[in-house]
Each structure stands twice: as structure tokens, then as C-alpha cells.
Amino acid sequence: MGQRIDVNHLNIYYGNFLAVEDVNINIEPNKVTAFIGPSGCGKSTVLRTLDRMHEIIPGAHVKGEVLLEGKNLYDKDVDPVSVRRDVGMVFQRPNPFPTMSIRENVLAGVRLNNRKISKSDADDLVEWALRGANLWNEVKDRLDNPGIGLSGGQQQRLCIARAVAVHPQVLLMDEPCSALDPISTLAVEDLIQELKGDYTIVIVTHNMQQAARIADYTAFFNLKAVGQPGHLEYFADTTTMFNNPQNEEAERYVSGRFG
Amino acid sequence: MGQRIDVNHLNIYYGNFLAVEDVNINIEPNKVTAFIGPSGCGKSTVLRTLDRMHEIIPGAHVKGEVLLEGKNLYDKDVDPVSVRRDVGMVFQRPNPFPTMSIRENVLAGVRLNNRKISKSDADDLVEWALRGANLWNEVKDRLDNPGIGLSGGQQQRLCIARAVAVHPQVLLMDEPCSALDPISTLAVEDLIQELKGDYTIVIVTHNMQQAARIADYTAFFNLKAVGQPGHLEYFADTTTMFNNPQNEEAERYVSGRFG
Amino acid sequence: MADLTQDPKASLAGAPVIDFDKFKPSRSFVASRKRKDMAMRVLISLAFVVACIPLVSVLWTTIANGVKRLNLNFLSYNMTGVVGGNPTPSGGYGGVFHAIIGTLEITGGAMIISIPIGLMCAVYLVEYAHGGKLAQTITLLVDVMSGIPSIVAGLFAFSMFTILIGPGSVNGFAGSVALSLLMLPTVVKSSEEMLKIVPGDLREASYALGVTKQRTITKIVLRTALPGIVSGCILAIARVIGETAPLIMTAGFIVSTNFNLFDGKMATLPVYVYQEYSTLYANCAPSAGPECVATIPMERSWAAALVLILIVLILNGIGRLVAKVFAVKSER
Amino acid sequence: MSSQDKTAVTMPAASGKTADKVFRWIAYACGILILVVLAAVFLFLLFRAWPLIGGDQAANSKTISDFTGGKATNFWAYVGPLLFGTVLVSALSLLISFFASIGIALFISHYAPKKLATALSYVVDLLAAIPSVIYGLWGGLILVPAIYPFWNWVATYLGWIPLFNGPAANPSRTVATVAVVLAVMILPIITSLSRDIFLQTPRLQEEAALALGATKWEMIKLAVIPFGKSGVVSASMLGLGRALGETMAVLMILSPGLTYSFKLLQASQNQTIAANIAAQYPEANDLGVSVLIGTGLVLFLITFVVNYVARRITEKKVA
Amino acid sequence: ACGDNTASTDNGSSNNNSSDTTAKSEPISGNFNGAGASSQKSAVDAWVAGFQATNPDAKIAYDPSGSGSGVKTFLTGATAWAGSDKALADEDVDDSKSVCASGTAFDIPVYISPIAVIFNLKGVSDAGKHIKMDAATIAKIFDGKITKWNDPAIADQNKDLELPDLAITVVHRSDKSGTTQNFVSYFKDQAADAWSYDLSENWPNSVGQGAKGTSGVVSTVKQADGTIGYADFSAVGDLGTVAVKVGDTYNEISAEGATKVVDASEIDSSVKGDNRVVVKINHAATGEGVYPILLVSYMIACPEYKDTKTAEFAKSWLTYVTSSEGQKAAAAAAGSAPLPDAIAQKDAASIEAIKTK
Ligand SMILES: Nc1ncnc2c1ncn2[C@@H]1O[C@H](COP(=O)(O)OP(=O)(O)OP(=O)(O)O)[C@@H](O)[C@H]1O
Ligand SMILES: Nc1ncnc2c1ncn2[C@@H]1O[C@H](COP(=O)(O)OP(=O)(O)OP(=O)(O)O)[C@@H](O)[C@H]1O
Ligand SMILES: [Mg+2]
Ligand SMILES: [Mg+2]
Ligand SMILES: O=P([O-])([O-])[O-]
């Protein structure tokens, strides 16, 4: 089951540069939350703080709290490695491990955690994850082929399968469809709808229609000017956001759209 | 003034692979013609045959005719280099020359062709082209700054200015807005509307809304299956295409869209 | 499209039920992973520290032994009239002026031969050949060529000049030929890499403006790749500037300054270092005063080695500077 | 938009067409030249070594016997131990430097703080350019006496391994010491290239690994190493090539011998082709030079084959 | 040219011939090359300096590339003279016909240097003491037959020394070398029973360690306790040297000792070609201070050159080199032994044969 995330007074820095300012947001479990906003407003940056991927960039750090079911991820005693095990992530461009087969790609995360997996357990897990990622039927006959040989949309679903195979509580997705063609996009959107039964999903998208189609809640980030920190401008359930936003900037952005 | 293009029975190959089959299309002068269609159907490929950019890819060649004001571009005695001077092109990702200033970028087409041009003529040309590309006011004070230092949308307009500065009759644009944020997209779309007074414009876009907004005519390309050649499925004026297409596939594509 | 929009539930229907506890890492395993991570961190840092010892020792030895005799006099005089361990009229003990000239001229010659050829070869590979059979062969052979032992290059240049010019022909240029053979693959490889990373966009942009291929290459591609090409060439020069064996064979050794690359022997710094090392001791007559230094050859040897390192350093500096000046301004 | 076209630009017809052609041909010729050069190296060497094959065999065997003090009388018996020594020394040095290089490269690319990494990169590049004659000086004068106690310890405690059979030669002008010096020499080369490759690991791959909950080392195993493997192999080949052909350092340190011996800690066991050429060349007569060029040809062919095979292997891996 | 240290050294040692006033009718000018034996390098440096003092416009370059290479180069006509640690071979004499305008090349001794048997032994060499040995003992050590420093063969001759029970590490040249040939020819003559190998410039056995060049041998000997090697006297530095048994006494190394041996040696009259002065070193020479291990190094020239300028140079150059002035300069710069008068006269006669008109 998904877990809830509460972000409190989060300031996010790249070195000395304050990239995102004072974010407060409550992300509901088993719902899809979309982050939208103009380029550079910090959507990706915020997303990456939710599984402590932000800090792998040299000099990057945060101030504030991110509570996963009440436990602050940024507490001293929390190991980022285990956070990332609980919070999965899917990236803008599909990134299967190029040297691994489809099967090995799915198992990559699991093998890190537990080296002694029986073959049959592994088989079951691969099937489960690939079915979950809506990819099973397409690849079941060639699990030992390299993952890199798949089409873009298939690769992206493979990456989702790889992420869910570790059985995280939360799934973060940073523009997972922006490199995909419409048909693949549809497949991934369907998948997201389905996955929210099991996971809390946060998705960054440039595409407002996509947000409108798949998200339960939408967060609109904005920035005053280039070089200024971004901030969370408005957060609402998706219907409100797109039909009746109570925020002028959001209204302008949502209606004046042409992306 | 723009020139008309007539494409007759054009088959386009990458090596032995027939990428696009039997295209027949008449592109009206001083109008905007949009190419739409699913990924891989050959929109870009067709576009690039219109200024013989296709053949710079090793092994790529065409069969059939492309008539520019009645003269076949693919006649033996036609020098592709001079064709490209008559037919300008703007690419998906803005690509100003990184080693050049804004001014030099605009003049690149002239300078690189080793043509002598006096300083005052050059100044005039730069101003004219940048005004034409709707960029003059934003950059007039920093013409000697590197072109790469502009924002994405500005860069794309700079590339349009660069293309315009060579005085082409036709302007080809391959998804010129797909890498831009909404605000920059608006600026470029405005520009296109304005430019069609002087040029024949052909634009490839993934975005049907964009086609609907800016094009006079729309060509819908399709492909039967991956690996099959693409073809021109339906060509009509834009209103017909989006409101009342006389082609089933086009209808499905235009209505079932989710880009 | 139809098969892709199939009912997703159907796809999960046959899915096996998974007991995820099975895959949960045991606590000890988590700890052992952490330990392993730490161990590797330590090991890698240790590898670094251990490897640093000899490398630092090499540098330190050269600097410590080299500074003793490194002065202006040493840089501005050659070895003519240097007898035993006695000082010369100028108050020094001989110097490396002639060897610096030789090194610069011979390496310069090698540059003039190999940089245009290497660069054009890279242009051919990247811009014209498009991975054809010939290009593959050339790429492979360039790789293989980078393994040519320097002494073989020396033998080659020596044999070539013997056969073409006649026996006993020793000149700086033969050294240049030997060195250019060693430089060529590095130049080709690095230029090739640099040309490859010039975005295809830029070429297309240029072609689309109606620019010919030749001008596109010279004015856009090469210009954009210039900083990288320069650093690559500097690297190639650094690679050959310290070659000794092929130069002993081809350029020989003299004590006076020879400015003519094409005629007569030429001293070079590495050969000088080696010659002085071979001399080891200078003789001081029993009657000689304290100004006669018996250990002067080794001291000169170290000082010349240091000069060589300094030249490499300066070259690197120049390379960086040039790269910076011509750098593509990419900051937004 | 101002439709008035103020610029008077005349278009020269088909300008640059010949320049285009000429340029193309120059590029082509330079490409071909590489093949010609390699062929020329081979042919010139073969030509000069010809008396070995086509010349007076009695004179040949006398020359060779003169070189070896009567230990060998035909070319193959002469070049055999030399080849063995060459391969032994360079393989050892590669073995020593390989892991250290990877370690340093990883340290610079993934562990060291950015500032330190930049500084280290610069130092490594500088070290890669240090002339081998300096490594020779350092090895012969500093390392040889300094390393003897260590070899002595090895011979005493690990002497039961045939490789380390004692007693360790003192001064230790042995294969083991030379291998260490060559390892130090090629270390910066391999490091520098490997570092460049590791730095190129796609961020996306690294992040994919980390996002799955990998530790840093696991991330390196999952993303960095697979990506860098073929590059590291070719870097090592370059290092091996350098070691195979290294002349001065070996010449100035090794006490040579002409045997097929693995006794790394004993003196006068092996000699390398390159050092042998340099040692014998000054005093060799015409026939002697032919013999030496013959050994050089063998060295050339060996490096050629080693590199060729290695490239083929890495090529396949990449594809 | 640029960077030259113009005047020759005129301070310190004894080679004071810096006589700007020396009345030489016609100073030599031009560029002249020589190449050959590395052993002569230091001496040639001094000779060049001395020669240029009177012929400031003569530019002389010497490449110490090795005797073999020097002779090879000379026979191509690229050099005016060659330096060599051994006399010309018969083929070389034949070959020289094509280089010399007439006649065949000849060699004359110009440089005599004692070869030291050097060693490094704690408590002995660092205390400045010598070890005494006879020819057979040295030969046996270098043949690996005597392996310990306290071997009775050594100890018996050195009752005054505490010799340790330490293995002897022999250090020999690994490259082809005139020094080696001259060194072992001493064994052949004086300890034939203990030395069975053929005379050669390559070290014949695989005892001990080989090192490249004199410098290699010296630095190797320096690096460990218990080493013994041989090297040109000028390169000995502070290492210990063996006092060699001559007759009934043990003589320490000295330049004069080597001169005396040459003085007592015959000229080999059986050699092919004219004007040649080849010394048959008499290792059996006895007398006070005689030191029998030595190297005689030659210069090789043509009796007639294709170019008169070169001929004039060669004549003037060799004359200077073999003059007592020249020999003194070499002694100061390289620690070599001066040519005995008898040899110098023979040299002069040969040099006189060079035709300059
Ligand atoms: N690695 C980095 N180092 C320094 N600054 C960064 C880095 N990555 C992003 N930034 C800065 O942080 C801010 C937010 O960037 P971010 O990528 O989160 O925006 P975004 O909303 O995801 O934009 P996009 O829609 O283009 O992906 C921007 O000002 C950006 O320049
Ligand atoms: N350089 C190339 N070499 C070989 N085949 C190519 C090349 N470029 C494109 N193709 C093939 O030609 C067909 C048409 O591609 P094209 O890029 O024109 O499609 P498109 O409609 O522009 O797609 P997109 O919307 O993704 O840009 C595709 O099957 C593609 O795989
Ligand atoms: Mg982003
Ligand atoms: Mg396209
Ligand atoms: O002068 P050498 O022949 O002993 O090198």
C-alpha cells in the first residue's frame, strides 16, 4: 500500500543557490499527484527531494522536512539508500541498464537487496512486475534479450517494472512520457492509473492535458523570474485546478496553455 | 515572395529502406502548410526532401519529383547547395552556432558563403532579419553576445532570423516549438503567422492544436505498421481537417489525440 | 492501436501472487552491504594513496634534484667548451639551450607533419567516410598504431632516411618523422572524438543555409571543435616530447646549438638527460679548486629533466589557455 | 515586417564547388596515408631486416652469436627469450597498474570532492606526460635501492612460490623492479583514460541505480563499470603498448639475461626487445643493425597483434 | 653559435693553452663532425675546447654514439674522424677505400685510460681502503668461481682486512663495450686458466648483474654492499678500487701506471693497411706503479680526404690531440693517461701522411 508524504517548509539548494523555496504539500496515499508549472520552476527538483536523490548532486542540500508516514527522511539516522528502496523513481528518459537482459533489468533492484533468490521466485517476480508494467505480453518470449533493444515506450515501461519490482511504497515519475510517442504515452498513462491502487504516485509533467487525465491532485509550481527560486503556487484537486482554480497565476497558466 | 512546391510521386529511401511512399502534394505559396501524423510516419523525412537536406544522410536518396515553381529540384544540373539557399530550414531544437555572436549567427548564411558584405549592409541585414524574427527589441543591445546565451525561445527565433537572412523563398520548420516552453511557443507561432506574408511555410508538428492554430493547410501522414513505409494519408485545408475530415484514419487521429 | 489499449486488468489477471517479504533484505545483509560499500570506499581511496607514493616520489625527486642547477645560465648556454667539472667563462657549468632548441624544433616538426594529417584523417573519418569499410580499417589501424613502440618508430625513421637519403644521414628531421609517427594516432583519435561531439544539428544548420560541405567543416565543425582539438594535440605533443630512444637513433647528440632541422645532429632534452646520466662523473684534476664539481653531470641531468617537465607544464598551460580563449560559450 | 529588402547580396554561381572537391580529396588522402604509413613502417623494417632472411646465413649466425656470447646462433633462438622477457615485463606491469589505475580513476570520478578531483586530474595528466627517461632515472637511482628490503621480504616469506624464488638480487635490478617502474609509468595513462570514460557514464544510468536503492559501490558496479568496461580495456591496451615498447626505463634499470625464466626477483634473467635494441644498437655493425631491426619487426608485429586482438574483442563487446 | 660558452676554460685546472697569441698561420674554420667511442667523450670535450682556443671559427661536434656506430658513420663519409675503443677490422680498412680520396683509413691511439676494478664493501671501500687481488682472483670472481668476500683466495692476499662472509655481486656491462673487451683481455693474458671465454665486447657469462654503460655499472655498484665491477677510471668517484698484482707488488690504479704499460707494449706491425698504429697491450709489463688493466682508444682518419678543408682540419685536429698539450688537457678533463712519447711520435708520423694539398 502507498504511504503518505508531508513536505514541511522545504527549501532546496544547489550549493548556495536556493532553487525552490518553502514548499508545503501533503501528498495523499494511493492517489496520483501531478506537479505542473513552467520550465525551471523546480518541479524535478522537488520531486527528487522526496527520495533523497537530490543530494547526489555535489553541493545540493535541503532545509526542512519530508515526512514519509510521519518519519522525516532527512533525519540524521536515516540511510538514504533505504529511503530509495521505499520510494521508487522513474525518469524522463527511459534508462534500462544497457548490459542487462530484460529479466535482469527487472531484477536489478531486488538483487541488490537480497542476493539469494530462488529461480522460481525470481521468475514469479519478473512476471508480476512486467504484468504490472503492462509489458508482459510484449516481452514474455524474449526475457533474455537486452533491455536496450526495446522501443522507447517499452523501455519506459520496463523501467517502471524495475521500479515496482522492489515493491516501493511511493513511485515518483519525472516526465515519464515526454520522450515517448502518443501511443506509448497512452500505455504508460493507463499503467499509472492502474498502479495507484498499490502506490502513492507523484508525477511531473509538462503536459497539462496529461495532468488533467491522470492526476487526482495537481500542484502548480511557479517562479517569479529566472534566477529567482521557484515555489509552490497552488495545490488543489485536479478538477478544481483545471476548471475552477482559486489562484490567478494558476488560472492564467492553465487556460493560456498551448503546449 | 514565397514560391509554390509541387511534389510528384515522391518515394524516399534510407539506403534500401523505403521510408515514405508515393507522396503527391501541392504546397501553396504564402500559406502555412502543416504536416501531422504519428511518430515515424515520415513527416520529417518528407520535409527534408524539399530542400535536399535528405541526401546528406549517407545512403539516403529519393525517386520522383519536387518542383519549386516548376523547376525540379532533383534535376541533374541542380546544385543542392543553391537549393538550400532558396529554401530555408528551421529545426526542432534551436541550433545557433555556439562559437558566434548573435550578430554573426544572423550573418552566418552570408558570411559562410564567402560573400563580401559591407559593414553597413550587414548591420541593415541583421536588423531586418531580427526584426523579421520578432527578436530585435530583445537583443538589439547585445548583438555581440554569444547566441547560445539566449533562452530557448529566443534561440529558436534567432535561428529563424538566420534562415530568413539568406532570403529564401520557402521556409521549412521541423517541430520548431517542441523543445520550447509555452510562452516561447506563443512567440514563435505569432512569428510564423507574420512570416507567411513573405514566405511559403511548411511546418511539421506533433501538436494538433498548433496545426489547427497556425496552418492554412494540413497534411496527415500515416503508416500502416512500424517498418512499413509512411504515406500521405490525407491532405486538406485545416478547417476541414479538424472539423470535418473526409478520411477515416485522419478523423481517428485528429479526434483520438492525446499528445 | 487496438492491442495496446487492451483492458489492462486482463494483463494483471494471470500475475503470480508475490510474497514480498521473501525479497526483503535481512538486517544483517543491509549491514553487510553498508560494510562492503565502506570497504570499497576505503580500498579505492587506499589505491589512490598507495599509487600516489611513487608518483609523488618521481615528481619530488626530479624537482628536488633539478632545482639545484636550474638557473638562467643553465637555460641560456649550451655544452660547448664545457670541460670536466670546471665552470665555464660565463660562470655556469654548461646548459641546455641547444637541447631546448632541438626539442622545440624536432617536436615542432613532428607537429607540422602529424597535426594536419591527423586532423584531416579525422575529418575524413567523421565527415566523409560514414563508417564504411575503409573507415573501419583506418580506425582499427589507428588504434593499433597507437601501440607502436617508440624504438620501432625510431628504427623506421632511421631505415627510411638510410634508404632514401643514404647511410649516415642523421638530422633533426628524421627525429621529427619518428615522433610524428607516434603522435599521429593520438591526434587522429582525439580529433575524431572532438569532431564527433560537434552536434549534427550544427552541420545541418549550416547546410540548410546553403553552405558547402568544405566551408561547413572548416568554419563550423572545426571551429566548434577547436578547443578540444587543441587540447588533444597538446596531449599528443606531451606524449612525444620526452621520447629518448628514437631520437638517439635519428637525431643523435651534439654539444653545440644547431638551428637547422634538416642538417646535422641535434641535441634534445631527453637525450641530454640520458647523456649526462651516462657521463655520471666529471673529472676534476687533483689540483682543481672547489669550483670544479665532479657530480655536475648528474646534476645537469636532473635539471634538464626538470626543464623537460616544465616545458610539458607550460605546454599544458598554453593548451588550457587556448582552449579557454576559443571555448564555446555555452553558459546561459 | 519591413518587406523592403535593403541588402544587395549577389550570389556567385556554384562557388566553392572545386574547393569542396579538393578538400574532400585531401581528407581522403590523409585517411589513406595512415594505411600507407603503417605499410611503410612494415616494409622499411622488412627491407632493412632482409639480410637476416635473404643474406649470408653464416654471417648472420656469427653476428647473433656475437651478440649473445655464443648462447644463440639463430634469429629465433635470439628473439625468443627477448620476446618472452618483453611480454613478461609488460604483462606484470599491466597487472600491477591495472587495479590501482581503476581505483584512482574511480576515486577521481566518483569519490573525491570536485575541487580535489579537478586538481588530481590535472596532476594525473601531467604525470602521463612525464618522459620515460625520467622514470628511468628515478627507477634506477631511487627505487632500486629503496625497494630491495621489500623484495627481500617477499623472497624470504613467499619464496616458496616459484615466481618469488630467492635470494632477491641486491641491487634489485630485476624484472620485478622494472615491472613496478613501468607500472608507475603507465598508471597515469590508464588512469587518465579510464577517468575520462567513467566520467562519461550517463547520469541517467547512475541515477537509475541509486534510485533502486543501490549504495555507491553497487551503483558503480551496476552502471559505471559496465559502461566503462570496453574503454578501460582499450586504455589498458594503450598502457600495455607503452610497456611493451618502453626502452629507456628498462635499459637504465634491468640487468638483462636471455632466458625463459620466471624468477622475478633474480637479476640477469630476462631482457626486453626494445631495451636490447637500444643497448646493442650503438656498437652494432651493419649486419648487427639488421638483426636488431629484425627484432624490432617482431616487436612491431607483436604489438600489432595484441592491439588488433584487443580492439576486436572490445569492438564486439560494444556492438 | 648561440649559447656557446665562448672562451675555453682558463681557470682551475692545468689545461692552460688559452693562448690567443699562439701564432698559427692559418686557423681552421668550418663545421666538422666526429662520432664514436663514448669513453673518449670527456677528453674530446676538452680537446674541442682547446682546439677552438686557437681556431675559434672551427665548430666541432662529437657524438659519443659508440665505437661501432662511430666507425660505421665514418665509413659513410659523414664524419671527419671516428673514435673507437678498438683498432679497425680488416673489412673496415677495405671499406674505407670508398670514403678516403686515396689510400685506406688508419687508426692512431689518442686516449689511454686505466680501467678500475671497483667495489663496494662496508668497512673496506667506505674506509678508503683497497683490496689486493691478482689477475686469477679477479678473473675467478668475475667468472662466478669465487662467490664470497671472505674466500681464502681473497683473504690470503688481504691479511690486513676484515672481510665479511658476504656474497659477491658481480656487476658487468650489459651493452657491447670496448671497456669490457679490454678488461677481459687482461684475464686472457694474465689468467688464461681462470678465463676460458673468447675475447668479445659482450660480456660472456651470466654471472651477477649487467648494467648499461659505465654509469650503469657505477651506480649499480654503489647501490648495494658486496658488489664488484669495472669502469673507466674517470667514473670511479668514491668507490673502492682493487690494487692489482703486478710482479710481486700490488699496484693501485693510476694514470701513469697505464702509460707505463703502453710504453712497454709493442706496436702491432701485422695489421692491414698503412700508417696504422695499433698497440698490442702488454699486460705482463712490470715495474713500479705499473697498472695493467687499461683501455687504449683510437682516432680513425683518412690519409687523403675528398675535401681539402676536412683534410686540413683532420691533420690539425689530430696533431693537437696527440700533442702533449692536448694530452694534458685530456688528463685534466678525463683523468686519462698521457700518451708515451714513443707512441706520440708514431702518431705524428701517421698524421703527417694526411695530404692537405
Ligand atoms: N544540477 C543543478 N545544478 C544547479 N542548478 C540546477 C541544477 N538542476 C537544476 N537547477 C536549477 O534549479 C531550478 C529548478 O530546476 P528544475 O530542473 O527542477 O526545473 P523543472 O521545473 O524540472 O524544469 P523542466 O520542466 O525544464 O524540467 C532551475 O533554476 C535550474 O536552473
Ligand atoms: N537516418 C535515418 N536512417 C534510416 N532510417 C531513418 C532515418 N531517419 C528516419 N528513418 C526512418 O524513416 C521513417 C520516418 O522517420 P521520420 O523521422 O521522418 O518520422 P517522423 O514522422 O518525423 O517522426 P517523429 O514524429 O518522431 O519526428 C522511420 O521509419 C524512421 O525509422
Ligand atoms: Mg524537470
Ligand atoms: Mg520528425
Ligand atoms: O666506451 P665503451 O665502449 O666502454 O662504452
From TrEMBL, chains A, B:
One example of a Gene Ontology biological process annotation: phosphate ion transmembrane transport
GO cellular component: membrane
Domain of life: Bacteria
GO molecular function: ATP binding; ATP hydrolysis activity; phosphate transmembrane transporter activity
Pfam families: ABC_tran
Keywords of the record: ATP-binding, Nucleotide-binding, Translocase, Transport
Ranges where the ABC transporter domain occurs: 5-248
Entry's transmembrane regions: none
PANTHER family recorded: ABC TRANSPORTER I FAMILY MEMBER 17 (PTHR43423)
Protein name in the entry: Phosphate ABC transporter ATP-binding protein
From TrEMBL, chain C:
SUPFAM superfamilies reported for this sequence: MetI-like
Tree of life domain: Bacteria
GO biological process: one example: phosphate ion transmembrane transport
Cited CDD domains: TM_PBP2
Chief place where the protein resides: membrane
Transmembrane segments: 42-63, 96-126, 138-164, 170-188, 220-241, 302-323
Membrane topology category: Multi-pass membrane protein
An example Gene Ontology molecular-function term: phosphate transmembrane transporter activity
GO CC term (a single one): plasma membrane
Keywords: Cell membrane, Membrane, Phosphate transport, Transmembrane, Transmembrane helix, Transport
Family to which this protein belongs: Belongs to the binding-protein-dependent transport system permease family. CysTW subfamily.
Function in brief: Part of the binding-protein-dependent transport system for phosphate; probably responsible for the translocation of the substrate across the membrane.
Name of the protein in question: Phosphate transport system permease protein PstA
Species whose genome carries this gene: Bifidobacterium aerophilum
Gene name, Swiss-Prot/TrEMBL: pstA
From TrEMBL, chain D:
Transmembrane segments: 25-47, 75-108, 120-151, 171-193, 243-262, 289-310
GO CC terms in record: plasma membrane
PROSITE patterns: ABC_TM1
Membrane disposition: Multi-pass membrane protein
Entry's Gene Ontology molecular function annotations: phosphate transmembrane transporter activity
One example of a Gene Ontology biological process annotation: phosphate ion transport
ABC transmembrane type-1 domain boundaries: 83-310
Localization, UniProt: Cell membrane
Domain of life: Bacteria
Entry keyword set: Cell membrane, Membrane, Phosphate transport, Transmembrane, Transmembrane helix, Transport
Secretion signal, residue range per the UniProt entry: none
Pfam families: BPD_transp_1 (PF00528)
Summary of the function given for this chain in its UniProt record: Part of the binding-protein-dependent transport system for phosphate; probably responsible for the translocation of the substrate across the membrane.
PANTHER family: PHOSPHATE TRANSPORT SYSTEM PERMEASE PROTEIN PST, PHOSPHATE TRANSPORT SYSTEM PERMEASE PROTEIN PSTC
UniProt record similarity statement: Belongs to the binding-protein-dependent transport system permease family. CysTW subfamily.
Protein name, entry field: Phosphate transport system permease protein
Organism: Bifidobacterium aerophilum
Lineage, uppermost ranks: Bacteria, Bacillati, Actinomycetota, Actinomycetes, Bifidobacteriales
